[in-house]
Structures are given as structure tokens and as C-alpha cells.
Amino acid sequence: MNVLVTGGMGQLAKSIKDIEAKYPNIKLHFKSSTELDITKKDTVKTIFNNQTFDYCINCAAYTAVDNAEKDSDSAYKVNELGVKNLAKECHIDKVILIHISTDFVFGGSGPIAYTEKDETNPQNVYGFSKLKGELAIEKSMNQYFILRTSWLYSEHNKNFMKTMIKLASDRQNLNVVDDQIGTPTYTKDLAEVIFKIIDTKHDNYGTYHYSNEGIASWYDFAYSIFDEINSDIKLLPIKTIDYPTPAKRPLFSVLDKSKIKENLNIHIPHWRSSLREAISNLKQ
Ligand SMILES: NC(=O)c1ccc[n+]([C@@H]2O[C@H](COP(=O)([O-])OP(=O)(O)OC[C@H]3O[C@@H](n4cnc5c(N)ncnc54)[C@H](OP(=O)(O)O)[C@@H]3O)[C@@H](O)[C@H]2O)c1
């Protein structure tokens, strides 16, 4: 099977690459943003015309949540228009699209985990732009998987886990918010699920939620990272109101994973055990 991977230098794409050898029947074609800018319709067309793909994994996205508030044009260009370009070509060429979306499409009032049927209500430009991308896919095609996930981290690129590890050596004290609740998700676990969808030729298309198991605040996540690396940094819990950011965040964005667990018959690792694995992989 030939699989196109957009956003090929992003952290999720790199985690997909890390485990590709386990699936010799799947040939991945990674395209960086310079090789394939998904906002350029003609470039997208050319890539699809030059090669036959069975699947397209869209890891390309505008992910700078705070910058999106000021630079909304860029966020919509990539997360809505770019996704629409991919969806149209996938539909024409009968390519199954696996698209990654976000818990930030939800409002975050809690306290019950969001199912795929729950109403969306994004709180910031990034969330709106990602929702528009989902809608563009739903309008353009039928053979798609939209995987909504949350709080991605890995040994690759810049992310919360790596920032905390760096701060552990630079700082003696740190304040982290404890009133935003969600689930940290190791991109390697998400990558495994993407491969499972392709490898099993799963055909119950639609929207699915996937994160690691368990719930945490950013404070819990930071605490566990420092615990894992034996840091003695002094960590203090603070409230969101005391840490203003340009983009408003949902206070509760836990995802209900019942649908994906039933459909793919998978066991999802708890975020705490995946964090341990990620830190061990980072050390290597
Ligand atoms: N990170 C999270 O916490 C999180 C949480 C929930 C959902 N998600 C979703 O998960 C997916 C993967 O996220 P990630 O953390 O792997 O993101 P990432 O590391 O920021 O990777 C995104 C990639 O997209 C590329 N890109 C940006 N604009 C592009 C364009 N016009 N054409 C082609 N590629 C473009 C970027 O390339 P350049 O760097 O060259 O611009 C980057 O390599 C995204 O859809 C994101 O919305 C992420």
C-alpha cells in the first residue's frame, strides 16, 4: 500500500516514521511543507497525479495556538483550505484520508468526557480553523477518518514534555496551571492506531476520538515529567486566570474513546505509562 504523509517534518509524522519498519506492506511517502504545501491546490494535484496512493495521512497543520489569534488568515489557510484541497484530491483519486483533528473543537465546560456525537464549540481561532477543516472533509468525501486527539508530545520537535525537561535544568521554580484538564497523548501511540487502521483496511469511516487513557491537568503532567527525570525543581500549581494567554483554552477537554476502542479492538495505554516510555526513548 502506498501512503502519502503530509507535514512530514512534524512530530506526529516523525513518530509514524519511527515505527514504519513494523509494517513492511505499507510504503510511506513523507512530504515536508516545502515539498508539498497543502494550501497550493496545483501542487496538491500534481502530487496526486504523479503517484497512486491508497491512503493520505494528513499531519500538516497550523499548530501555533496562540499565534493563530493574530494570524487567523494563516491558520484558516492551512487548517481549512489546505485540508479542503487534500480532501478533494483524495475524493477524485479514491484515496482514503486519515486526518488529525483536536480536542480544541470542544467548548470545555465538562465534566463528562466528549464523545464524537457531542456538540462542538471551539474557544479559539485554532479550534475554529480545525473544525472548519473537519467540515470541509465531511462535505467533500466519504472515505475518511478524522482522529481527534489531545495534548500531543514526543521525543521529536518542540512540545510540553521537552520544554519541561529543559526548564528542569534552567530553573529552580516553575508555575503550571492546574485547572485545565485533558489527556496527554504520546504521538507514538497515535501512530500505532493510524497504522492499525491502514493495516486492517478498517472501513467504518467517520470521526473518532483518540488520546491516551486517564486524565490530567498540565500541573499533573509537569509533575510526572519531573518525577520521571528525578528533578527537584519546585513546582507550584496556578490558575489559568493567573497565566493569561492570547488564545482561550477549554478548561476540560477529555475525550471519550469508547468508539475507537470498540471499532479497532485496541487497548489504549495510560498517559502515565506512555510518558515513561517517551522519556526512556528520548534518553536513548
Ligand atoms: N500538538 C498538539 O498538542 C496537538 C493536539 C491535538 C491535535 N493536534 C493535531 O495533530 C496534528 C499533528 O500535530 P503535530 O503536533 O505533529 O504538529 P507539528 O509538529 O506542528 O507539525 C505540523 C507540520 O505541518 C507542517 N505544515 C504547516 N503548514 C503546512 C502547509 N501549508 N503545507 C504542508 N505542511 C504544513 C509543518 O511544517 P513547517 O514546520 O515546515 O511549517 C509541520 O511540520 C495536527 O493536525 C494538529 O492540529 C496536535
From TrEMBL:
NCBIfam families recorded: rmlD
Function, as annotated: Catalyzes the reduction of dTDP-6-deoxy-L-lyxo-4-hexulose to yield dTDP-L-rhamnose.
Organism domain of life: Bacteria
GO MF, any single term: dTDP-4-dehydrorhamnose reductase activity
UniProt keyword Transmembrane, yes or no: no
Catalytically driven reaction(s): dTDP-beta-L-rhamnose + NADP(+) = dTDP-4-dehydro-beta-L-rhamnose + NADPH + H(+)
Family: Belongs to the dTDP-4-dehydrorhamnose reductase family.
Pfam family, one: RmlD_sub_bind
UniProt KW Oxidoreductase keyword: yes
Pathway in which the depicted protein is active: Carbohydrate biosynthesis; dTDP-L-rhamnose biosynthesis
Residue ranges annotated for the RmlD-like substrate binding domain, each copy included: 1-282
An example Gene Ontology biological process: dTDP-rhamnose biosynthetic process
Gene Ontology cellular-component annotations: cytosol
The EC number(s) this enzyme carries: 1.1.1.133
Organism: Winogradskyella luteola
Protein name listed in UniProt: dTDP-4-dehydrorhamnose reductase
Assigned keywords, A-Z: NADP, Oxidoreductase
